[in-house]
Amino acid sequence: MSATPSGEIMPAPVYGTGETVSIIVAFPPGHRRTPNYIKGKTGVIERYCGAFINPEERAYGLAGLPKRHLYRVRFNQTDIWDEYDGPVVDTLDIEIYEHWLRSGTGETA
Amino acid sequence: MSAHDEQDHDHGHHEDGSPLNYADDSRHDFSETDHYPLLVEAVRQLLIEKEIIKARDVQERLDFMDSRGVEHGARIVVKAWTDPDYKARLMADGTAAVKELGIPMADLELLVVENTAEIHNLIVCTLCSCYPRSILGLPPDWYKSKTYRSRAVNEPRSVMREFGTIIADNVTVRVHDSNADMRYLVLPERPAGTEDWSEEQLTELITRDCLVGITVPTIP
């Protein structure tokens, strides 16, 4: 547990570097920072980036607290796109908030 | 703000013969009579009318945004190329290493990704056009275009090829979707044959585009 600048206590990050995660498939309305192309895909945590004010709430004038843990998740391009035309060594890193992650492989592996 | 209207800052990519004009669809996004430009203008006029800001404040802010270019980014790269200790600090904590040079980073977290013989990095923001403006200035039109934002993630090699950049098949192309709180700077590989070059000469090699990863520095 760690205290945020606003004094709130927030839980420690759930995921560690190298852990297999997948992106939740959901389509809530409004401002979201998780693009559709990555939903349901499986990757590994590249690093933990820190805790940030939740932009999905701040977009509507809310405080966006408690802060959300942000990770960079690395994917093989061939796992994202069925028709990826580059070599298998290619990868994509994207920043994902913890509330969009789940442990293990995704719905569309 | 009306940065999108400043066409003189939105260089297309004609100079190296790119066959696709990535600027065009970006312009379609921001016609001056669309909802959002009109809303921006209405809010601007209201703020001035109610004396919350002065017209001059807006212009000064625009001038400030215009004044920033790639200079800070180039300085960071040359320092990293010529000072291994600095490079180590830059890779470990980009934000702190940039501040160390007296370059303001606002509240943004900078992550530096290094091009090597094994990895080539390319930056895109698929959701909007997040870009490290404090060190690179205003983003180019093509970076903001829907074409680039959609194609850079699923056919990065084709997009780079259109900018004249060909990456060998045994090199990993690593795309970074700058979709949230990090901002990215590509640290290009220092070209072979520049070992004796002065910092001024090295600075000349560094373009905005190679700091986004769409091109690589080349010796003229």
Description:
The complex is a heterodimer of chains A (109) and B (220). Chain A has 109 residues and is mainly beta. Chain A has a single domain (15-103), classed as Roll (SH3 type barrels), CATH 2.30.30.50. Helix content of chain A is 7%, strand content 35%. In chain A, the strands form 2 sheets. In chain A, strands 6-5-4-3-7 form a 5-stranded antiparallel beta sheet. In chain A, strands 1-2 form a two-stranded antiparallel ribbon. The longest helix of chain A has 4 residues, at 55-58. Chain A is globular, with a radius of gyration of 15 Å. The model of chain A has no long low-confidence stretch (mean pLDDT 89). With 220 residues, chain B is mostly helical. Chain B has 2 domains: 2-67, no CATH class; 71-212, Nitrile hydratase alpha /Thiocyanate hydrolase gamma (Nitrile Hydratase, Chain A), CATH 3.90.330. Chain B is built from 12 helices and 4 strands, in the order H-H-H-H-H-H-E-E-H-H-H-H-E-E-H-H. Chain B has helices at 23-29, 35-49, 55-67, 71-82, 84-92, 94-100, 133-136, 141-144, 146-154, 156-162, 199-205, 208-212; strands at 109-114, 119-124, 172-177, 182-187. In chain B, the strands form 2 sheets. Chain B has a two-stranded parallel ribbon with strand order 1-4. A two-stranded parallel ribbon of chain B has the order 2-3. In chain B, helix 4 (71-82) crosses helix 5 (84-92) and helix 9 (146-154) packs across helix 10 (156-162). Chain B starts with 22 loop residues before the first helix and ends in an 8-residue tail after the last helix. Classes of the chains: A mainly beta (109), B mainly alpha (220). Strand 6 (91-97) of chain A pairs parallel with strand 3 (172-177) of chain B, so a sheet runs across the interface.
Please list the strands of the largest sheet of chain A in the order they lie side by side: 6-5-4-3-7
Query: Helix content range of the residues of chain A, please?
Result: under 10%
Characterize the largest beta sheet of chain B: strand count, sense, and whether it forms a barrel: 2 strands, parallel
What is the makeup of the main sheet of chain A? 5 strands, antiparallel
Summarize model confidence as the mean pLDDT of chain B.
Answer: 86
Please compute the radius of gyration of chain B using only Cα atoms. Answer: 18 Å
- Classified by CATH, the class of the largest domain in chain B is Alpha Beta
Number of domains of chain A: 1
- Tally of DSSP β-strands of chain B: 4
CATH topology call of the largest domain in chain B: Nitrile Hydratase, Chain A
CATH architecture annotation of chain A: Roll
- The proportion of strand residues of chain B reads 5-15%
Radius of gyration of chain A: 15 Å
The greatest inter-chain interface is formed by:
A-B, 27 and 23 residues
Low-confidence stretches of chain A: none
Side by side, the strands of the main sheet of chain B go 1-4
In the CATH hierarchy, the architecture of the largest domain in chain B is Alpha-Beta Complex
* Averaged pLDDT of chain A: 89
